[in-house]
Amino acid sequence: MKKIFKVLLCVLLAALFAVAGYVGYVLISYHRIGNQILDVEGKKGGAAAVGESYRVVSWNIGFGAYEADYGFFMDGGTQSWAWSKTRLDTNLAAIAARLGAETPDFCLVQEVDIDATRSYHTDERVPLRMALTGENYASVFAQNYDSPFLMYPILQPHGASKSGLITFSAHGMTSAIRHELPVETGLSKFLDLDRCYSVSRIPVAGGGELVLYNLHLSAYTSDGTIATEQLKRLLDDMRREYEAGNWCVAGGDFNKDLLGDSSVYFTAADTLYAWAQPIPEGTFDGTGIVLVAPLDEANPVPSCRNADGPYNERQYVLTVDGFLASQNVAVQESRVIDTGFAYSDHNPVEMTFSLR
């Protein structure tokens, strides 16, 4: 009996040491990437022009895993990886082909993995750059996720992840930088991304620059307020560029209800989602920056679904993807491109604009 007790005690102690060791590994491994100068690849030269019409497309591709039958464990679903390497590659090829067919002047893509357990260590920049690069596009990548190995869910641990934002420009790009954003300081920081936005500079014929921002604000937070703080940081940056005489356009996943109350147009939520709050009133006052929320009121299409399971008509949907523009940018149109959530839990969004 004593021998059995000793064995059980040893097993328990070993388990406790293993848990303590893992917690220590996660705590020690955690770090912020910080501000960085980014490398511009692809097309050299080029410029935008005042008065010309341009089209920008933004798409959170959900690391290529969120097909219509996919539900993510952090949203209430069961999956933590893409279904398989084969299905991931097929879906990424479809995403790249769709973006290539759109032939945008500028393209902003979020949740692009470069080395992650969940996406079978696939560098997802490759198919995107094959569709939008070379002599046609300049591109720049900003990393916003460098996570240690996460052991949850137990049966299929999410693993380690390196991921980020990629920006494409058909009109040249002289330089780009990564700006770090604030994140929560509690345990939520281990589940959230290392939030940032990228800033790409496109020369404008006759002087000045089109400053293009790619963003993905926080979702997995305690109450959603950190995403508002991040937005204010971005708006301060855009205001300074606007006051300096440059043209500013931002796009991406705000993780905020950009329509104020998407249930007016779509299904009402059966629960409260912190990431689905509206942007507080007064956020844009005095900034010279306006929010452009993509919406066709005659035929409203949401930009995002709650990935608590396979896509269905009863699932909560809303619009969290959109754009910001300085007041010297004339916006002609903005809409959601309806893919039926076939490739991601987000539909792509687009905006047509010109520089005043």
Word description of this protein:
By secondary structure, the protein is α+β, with helices and mostly antiparallel strands. The protein has 2 domains: 1-30; 33-355, 4-Layer Sandwich (Deoxyribonuclease I, Chain A), CATH 3.60.10.10. It has helices at residues 2-29, 85-102, 125-131, 225-243; strands spanning 36-38, 40-42, 53-60, 106-116, 138-150, 159-169, 175-180, 196-203, 209-216, 247-253, 289-292, 304-305, 317-318, 321-326, 329-336, 349-355. A 7-stranded mixed beta sheet has the order 1-7-8-9-10-14-11, with helices on one face. It has a 7-stranded mixed beta sheet with strand order 2-5-6-4-3-16-15. A two-stranded antiparallel ribbon has the order 12-13. Helix 4 (225-243) links the parallel strand 9 and strand 10. Helix 2 runs parallel beside helix 3. The longest helix has 28 residues, at 2-29.
Secondary structure elements and pairings:
Blueprint: H1 2-29, E1 36-38, E2 40-42, E3 53-60, H2 85-102, E4 106-116, H3 125-131, E5 138-150, E6 159-169, E7 175-180, E8 196-203, E9 209-216, H4 225-243, E10 247-253, E11 289-292, E12 304-305, E13 317-318, E14 321-326, E15 329-336, E16 349-355
Parallel strand pairs: 3-4, 9-10
Antiparallel strand pairs: 1-7, 2-5, 3-16, 4-6, 5-6, 7-8, 8-9, 10-14, 11-14, 12-13, 15-16
Helix pairs in contact: 2-3
